[in-house]
Specification:
This protein folds into two domains: about 270 residues, Regulator of chromosome condensation 1/beta-lactamase-inhibitor protein II (Methylamine Dehydrogenase, Chain H); about 80 residues, Zinc/RING finger domain, C3HC4 (zinc finger) (Herpes Virus-1, 2-Layer Sandwich). The strands form nine sheets. A four-stranded antiparallel sheet has the order 1-2-3-4, with no helix packed on it. A four-stranded antiparallel sheet has the order 11-12-13-14, with no helix packed on it. A four-stranded antiparallel sheet has the order 18-19-20-21, with no helix packed on it. The chain is mainly beta. It contains three helices and 30 strands.
C-alpha cells in the first residue's frame, strides 16, 4: 500500500500527498483541476489550497501553481521551504528565513525583520509568521487595507500558530493554548486547560490533538454531535488534520486518511488509502479534464505547445500575439518550444497508464 504523507482541504475540495511524491485531488473545484498531479522528474513534498487556486512545493525548492492566477515560482539557488495560501493570495518562506507574498492584497513584503521566520500559515484573509524567538507576526486584511500585528506571550514562547476564517489559536511551549478572534460558532477553545499536543484551525472550526491521540473539535458541527466532541482511532495515532469548509480529513500513522462531514462532492471519503496497481486508464473518466489542461487558454482550440518563462503554456499562434501571460499576467521574456517534446511524452504517459488507483 502507498502511504499518504500529507493532507490539505479547501471549501469543498481536498488533496492528499502520496509517498511517491504525487498528489490526488477530490471534490469540486471552481477551476479546471486534474485529479492527479505528477511533476516529471520531481517529487511534491507539500501542498496548500486557496479558494480558486492551489500550490504544490517541489523537492528542488520551487513551486507549481494551479487555478486562478496561480504562479510557478523559481528563485533558485534560493529555495522555498514552505508555502501558505489565502482566498486569492499566497505566501512563501525561503530557507534564509525571509518571506514573499503574491496575490490581491498589499501585504508588507519588506522582510525587514531583525529575526528569522521559521514557519508560516495562511487562511482566508490572514497570514501568520512564527519567529525564532517564539513570537508571531500577523497580517490581516484585503486589498489595500492590511494591518500588521506582532504577538508575544513572553516569557512563554509560541511553538505553533494556526488561523481560521476570523479566529486564531497559539500553542505555547508549556502545551497550553491561547485563542482569540470571532467565536460565533463556538470555534474558540476558551478556558481550555488540558495539555495540548498539536492544534489545527480552518474556516469556523478548531481541532486540538491531545497527548492520548484524541482530538477535540470546536466550532461548526460537522459531527452531528455537540460542539467539543472527542474522537480517536486507537491503536492508530493521528499525525495530521486538515479542515475544509464543511469537512475534516484526519491522517493516521499507518498512512491512511479518515474523512468526516459533508461529502456532497466527494471531498471527504470516509476511508482513503491507495494500492499500487498497473492498469489502462479509463480515458472517458479524464477526457474532459485533459482537454481543458491541454488546450490553449486564449483560442480554446489549438493545443498548448509553447512554454512561457512563467511556466504556463500557449499554442504557437497565440504565443506570438501576446506580451503577457493570460493566466498570471507575467511579462513574456522568453518562450520555449523545445519543452513541448517533454510535455508530449508526459501527456502520452498520462493518457495510457494510471499507476495508482484508489
Amino acid at each position: 500500500m502507498l502511504k499518504i504523507t500529507n493532507i490539505s482541504a479547501g471549501p469543498v475540495h481536498s488533496m492528499v500527498l502520496l509517498e511517491n511524491g504525487t498528489v490526488k485531488c477530490f471534490g469540486k473545484y471552481s477551476v479546471p483541476t486534474p485529479s492527479e498531479i505528477e511533476i516529471p522528474g520531481r517529487k511534491i513534498i507539500s501542498m496548500v489550497e486557496g479558494n480558486e487556486h492551489f500550490i504544490v512545493l517541489l523537492d528542488d525548492g520551487t513551486t507549481r501553481g494551479f487555478g486562478r492566477n496561480a504562479q510557478n515560482l523559481n528563485y533558485l539557488p534560493k529555495k522555498i521551504i514552505q508555502i501558505a495560501a489565502g482566498i486569492d493570495s499566497s505566501m512563501v518562506l525561503f530557507e534564509d528565513g525571509t518571506i514573499e507574498f503574491f496575490g490581491s492584497a498589499e501585504f508588507n513584503t519588506s522582510n525587514k525583520f531583525n529575526k528569522k521566520i521559521i514557519n508560516i500559515v495562511g487562511n482566508h484573509i490572514s497570514y501568520g509568521a512564527l519567529f525564532e524567538d517564539g513570537s508571531v507576526g500577523l497580517w490581516i486584511g484585503e486589498w489595500n487595507n492590511v494591518e500588521f500585528h506582532e504577538i508575544s506571550f513572553l516569557p512563554k514562547k509560541i511553538k505553533k500558530f494556526v488561523i481560521g476564517n476570523e479566529h486564531y489559536v497559539a500553542l505555547l511551549d508549556d502545551n497550553t493554548i491561547v485563542p482569540w478572534g470571532e467565536n460565533y460558532n463556538g470555534q474558540l477553545p476558551i478556558n481550555y486547560i488540558t495539555p495540548v499536543k498539536n492544534i489545527y484551525a480552518g474556516y469556523e472550526k478548531t481541532v486540538l490533538l491531545l497527548e492520548d491521540s484524541t482530538i477535540k473539535i470546536f466550532g461548526e458541527d460537522i459531527w452531528t454531535t455537540p460542539i467539543g466532541s472527542q474522537q480517536n482511532f486507537l491503536p492508530k495515532k493521528i499525525t495530521n488534520v486538515a479542515i475544509g469548509g464543511t469537512h475534516i480529513l484526519i491522517l493516521l500513522d499507518d498512512g491512511t486518511v479518515k474523512g468526516f462531514g459533508d461529502n456532497t462532492y466527494g471531498q471527504a471519503p470516509l476511508n482513503i488509502s491507495f494500492k499500487k496497481v498497473s492498469l489502462v486508464l479509463d480515458t472517458n473518466e479524464y477526457k474532459s479534464d485533459l482537454v481543458t489542461r491541454m488546450t490553449c487558454p486564449i483560442c480554446l482550440t489549438n493545443e498548448r505547445k509553447v512554454r512561457l518563462n512563467c511556466g504556463h503554456m500557449l499554442c504557437e499562434i497565440c504565443s506570438d500575439k501576446v506580451d503577457k501571460c493570460p493566466e498570471c499576467r507575467t511579462p513574456i521574456i522568453n518562450k520555449d518550444a523545445v519543452f513541448y517534446n517533454k510535455y508530449l511524452k508526459y501527456k502520452n504517459k498520462y493518457l495510457t497508464l494510471k499507476e495508482y488507483n484508489i
